[in-house]
Design brief:
heterodimer; A: mainly alpha; three-stranded antiparallel beta sheet; 3 strands; B: alpha/beta; five-stranded parallel beta sheet; 17 strands; 25% helix
């Protein structure tokens, strides 16, 4: 953890604009999305299989973004968390790649390396999580992997829309705390 | 004369830092009519400004100035730029502390006598005894409104506490309750009662938890004798040809260098910044830094033996609801070398929200072993383990040889490596912590590594003898009569207990001493 991670995250969700296939973070999250089905790439956008959401890339190749989303899920797999949240979590890499050539290289080359290691069908072509994870174990010490993983710690788990999926209730001051809302309601002990 | 004070007013006591030590000392001196200027590096946020959000509050409150780390501790690998999680704001770390207010046990003031020589450790007895400090503990507990003292009721137990208590009962532990907490169980001293909101580590938005920010400091300011100058980052302390300190150089909120004259200077910037300032104040007369004839400034850094145990059950716990540190088991705090280590440890409930749990459960961890733990966040209970660690001379704070902050001041490096005793104690504590939860049906337990240090101690330690300590029993430096240390850096050893109550007790006692010495014109 560092404040740096956090600041990166702060920038993730303010760079989208209205119109076109690009969705703002909020719009993206308001729409439904399938969990764990193959992502589609069309033009400069990554799309969910049911076309319920799409994310346009500006600096990274859309294929790279699609693989990043899969990579994010493989690093922090939560079967009850939809792809759209992983997409939001890695969107910042596209934003940063737009102004930081070194970052763009880090991500593009890192993803290209994953595809190369995976063989003919590329990283996303590997059907089993354990096949993909075996590749990740080979590269887990690289700056590429650590950059993606380190960023996700904040950009995935600090999405307020994700918290209810884990039973975390967030802010409570405005509701008067839990003194009358179950701070001691455990029954099973 | 009264606040605000002029920069060239050489009659003031200048206190560096406004936390448990500095904020308390400032109020105590002001109550006695002594003119005080508190220089605080951070901003002033009032408690209404605090944020019920872990990362946002972290950004708002934490000390994030550049630091480096070295040594064998895992923090140096996982959080190399963040050795300590402490607050940079008026009120210091009393803003985010949990509120646990425990007295040291009598034998803990006599670590060397009780434990004997421990190879590789730099143990000493405190020059203060439990009996000498007892009346000041009384005053500190009354001031802070500590539950289970002064006929103040304990806090009600939340879900996380109830799990801990049930496990403690099953294991046969006898000393488990909702703690001695500086959190109001009833309205007291103009502050309201705890609303079981959680987010104690993000600053209490009700003001129910004692903090110098809204208790000591406003009371001191009301006397007209206390001025708190926020965003004043101290760079060095100056002295005259006789070796007495004369004032403090600091960067103000605009980055402009200012010089505040002083009759007395008290350093209370926590155990990383306090030695950093003394070391950075080296002069031709004091080439190794101020008050450092012993060579002990910056050494013997302690951070408590810590670790956490989280456990997953088959039904919801919702540990994030209510007081963060909601209960304690003290049975393991005794000194009992048959366990394979000297000293003892406390087991205290702790909860993290999902964002911090993701960052701290197993830093660097990934994959299903990690995520299936988080999947059960709602069914988790958690405790923090905190025990006495061994002072070691090579653990400490030094000035970085190349890197400087924006004011040109060398940044601090924090070196730490566990002593074998620390490791043996942590392993025992993990085992007992996991047993507490397994006794009530835990499906899975997580022995979680130490977080960046919240308890930072020992880097200007107290000793009777000038040759092996920095300050005497009053926190007065052996080398310079009108220079004091007022924070946890003066601790000779760390004891098992959370340090704040002892810092406050020492500050109240030190205020009496300073007032008397000023009255007698000794300083």
């Amino acid at each position: 953890m560092s404040s740096h991670d956090h600041h990166d995250h702060d920038h993730h969700h303010h760079h989208d604009h209205d119109g076109g296939p690009r969705l703002s973070r909020r719009e993206l999250i308001q729409q439904s999305g399938l969990i764990g089905a193959a992502l589609l790439v069309s033009g400069s956008a990554v799309m969910s299989p049911d076309r319920a959401w799409a994310m346009e890339t500006t600096a990274l190749k859309p294929d790279t973004m699609a693989t990043l989303i899969q990579l994010a899920r493989d690093i922090y797999p939560h079967d009850h968390v939809a792809d759209k949240f992983y997409a939001v979590a890695v969107k910042g890499h596209d934003t940063k790649a737009g102004t930081d050539a070194a970052h763009k290289d880090l991500i593009e080359q890192g993803i290209a390396d994953l595809d190369k290691r995976a063989g003919a069908g590329g990283y996303r072509g590997l059907g089993w999580e354990e096949e993909r994870v075996a590749i990740l174990r080979q590269i887990e010490a690289t700056p590429f992997f650590q950059t993606v993983r380190g960023g996700l710690v904040v950009s995935l788990y600090n999405q307020k829309e994700v918290w209810p999926l884990f039973g975390y209730e967030g802010e409570s001051f405005s509701k008067g705390g839990y003194i009358k809302r179950g701070f001691d309601d455990i029954q099973w002990l | 004369m009264g606040a605000p004070y002029a920069l060239d007013d050489s009659g003031v006591v200048v206190i560096i830092g406004s936390g448990a030590g500095g904020g308390t000392l400032g109020n105590e001196l002001a109550q006695k009519g002594i003119d005080v200027v508190v220089l605080e590096a951070g901003k002033r946020h009032e408690f209404q400004d605090f944020i019920n959000d872990e990362w946002d509050a972290f950004s708002q409150l934490s000390w994030l100035d550049a630091r480096t780390t070295s040594g064998g501790w895992r923090v140096a690998k996982d959080f190399p730029g963040l050795p300590a999680w402490i607050v940079k704001a008026v009120g210091g770390s009393t803003i985010h502390w949990a509120g646990a207010s425990l007295r040291f046990q009598p034998h803990e003031f006599k670590a060397l006598t009780t434990y004997g020589q421990v190879a590789g450790a730099n143990l000493l007895d405190w020059p203060v005894t439990s009996e000498e400090l007892a009346p000041y503990y009384d005053k500190a507990e009354f001031k802070m409104g500590v539950t289970r003292t002064n006929e103040i009721a304990g806090l009600p137990g939340n879900n996380n506490y109830k799990v801990l208590k049930a496990g403690a009962d099953k294991l046969g532990y006898k000393n488990c309750h909702t703690g001695r907490m500086a959190i109001n169980s009833k309205e007291r001293d103009g502050r309201q009662a705890c609303q079981q909101t959680g987010f104690c580590f993000q600053g209490c938005k009700w003001g129910a938890k004692w903090s110098t920010l809204y208790s000591e400091i406003p009371k001191g300011e009301k006397t007209g004798k206390l001025e708190v100058r926020a965003e004043s980052h101290v760079l060095k302390i100056e002295h005259d040809a006789s070796g007495k300190v004369t004032g403090v150089v600091y960067a103000d909120k605009d980055g402009k260098t200012q010089r505040q004259k002083a009759r007395v200077v008290a350093v209370a910037g926590n155990s990383i910044e306090s030695p950093r300032i003394l070391l950075n104040s080296a002069s031709s007369m004091f080439p190794n830094g101020l008050a450092n004839s012993s060579g002990q400034v910056g050494r013997n850094y302690m951070r408590h033996m810590t670790g956490s145990v989280y456990a997953v059950f088959d039904k919801p716990v919702r540990m994030h609801r209510g007081t963060t540190m909601a209960g304690i088991i003290s049975d393991e705090s005794r000194h009992d070398p048959s366990r394979g280590f000297v000293g003892g440890y406390e087991m205290e409930t702790l909860s993290l929200g999902l964002p911090f749990m993701a960052a701290f459960l197993n830093p660097g961890g990934w994959g299903r072993s990690f995520t299936t733990g988080l999947d059960n966040y709602e069914k988790m209970a958690g405790m923090w383990l905190v025990g006495e660690d061994m002072p070691q001379e090579q653990n400490g704070v030094t000035l970085h040889k190349e890197k400087k902050d924006k004011y040109g001041m060398p940044i601090p490096n924090v070196a730490f490596t566990d002593h074998a005793n620390d490791i043996a104690m942590r392993n025992h504590a993990y085992k007992q912590g996991m047993a507490v939860y397994q006794a009530v049906g835990a499906i899975r337990t997580f022995p979680t590594p130490p977080y960046p240090s919240t308890h930072n101690l020992g880097t200007n330690r107290m000793s009777d003898k000038a040759r092996d300590g920095v300050v005497n029993k009053w926190g007065q430096t052996h080398d310079i009569k009108n220079l004091f240390v007022s924070d946890g850096s003066q601790f000779t050893t760390g004891a098992a207990e959370n340090p704040t109550l002892t810092i406050v007790a020492l500050a109240i006692r030190q205020a009496d001493y300073i007032a008397k010495a000023m009255g007698a014109k000794e300083i």
